[in-house]
């Protein structure tokens, strides 16, 4: 088994760059305000507009990327919208007064400083979330990776118990995957991995999470009443893969099989020991000729 390749997702990179740019641009505001107050010059018509929070570069991008913000943290997205608008309103009030030859109000200045700080803090929070989510997800298959499985595992184990079911760890490893790369090239290997992940995901229920555990190794948390049902579920995955070939970049089709180890999870058992038992069963399956599901001892 080898480490997962995770190229930097260009979409994430753009998202983070724009967040950084927004922080920088909005830190600049203090300097611009001071300039406006001291020199009594207009900061620009766009800034004085009642719609300034929608017209500024961040505002325009924020509207188009709002769904992304919401998916990461809906409360933070709402707070950013609110702080950003309030900050622009405070800037406008201060500049309006100064341009009329009056002093800006201390209240507006306090609001500006408070909302600017809150806005920048929220952007930093969203950046941390975006990076953490990207680290958890495999850029190739889109599946979550092994980091953080422990928490999901504990929740699934407790939920299965509550419903009178048992949790099973199913470790799957694509057979002869190195030969796929060697014979058809690395991009073809990547296409097989993507197809494999999608084909499995299609067969699984929402309550059965699927992870990319390593290079060509995947982990599923199954929930069934007994061993026979768990084995049937695993065999169903094997049959689905057998009738669903992957399309390679050159248009050719390729069917791959997998070997799997299936281990029941004890009521108090940790993920690591269940994975170790499933892995041992998987190893026996490879030794016995591959393309099979083996129940852990
Ligand atoms: N294309 C591609 N290959 C990968 C990726 N991650 C791991 N691999 C390859 O997966 C292969 C795994 O090979 P092995 O561990 O020898 O296993 P195998 O050939 O599948 O043999 P068995 O498991 O014994 O059936 C290695 O050649 C890795 O380079 C990936 O993200 N993309």
Automatic annotation (TrEMBL):
InterPro entries: Chemoreceptor_zinc-bind_dom (IPR025991), Diguanylate_Cyclase (IPR050469), GGDEF_dom (IPR000160), Nucleotide_cyclase (IPR029787), Rev_trsase/Diguanyl_cyclase (IPR043128). It catalyses: 2 GTP = 3',3'-c-di-GMP + 2 diphosphate. Residues 165-297 form the GGDEF domain. Its EC number is 2.7.7.65. CDD domains: GGDEF. Pfam families: CZB, GGDEF. GO terms for biological process: cell adhesion involved in single-species biofilm formation; negative regulation of bacterial-type flagellum-dependent cell motility. One of its GO terms (cellular component) is plasma membrane. One of its GO terms (molecular function) is diguanylate cyclase activity. It is an enzyme of class 2 (transferase). This is diguanylate cyclase.
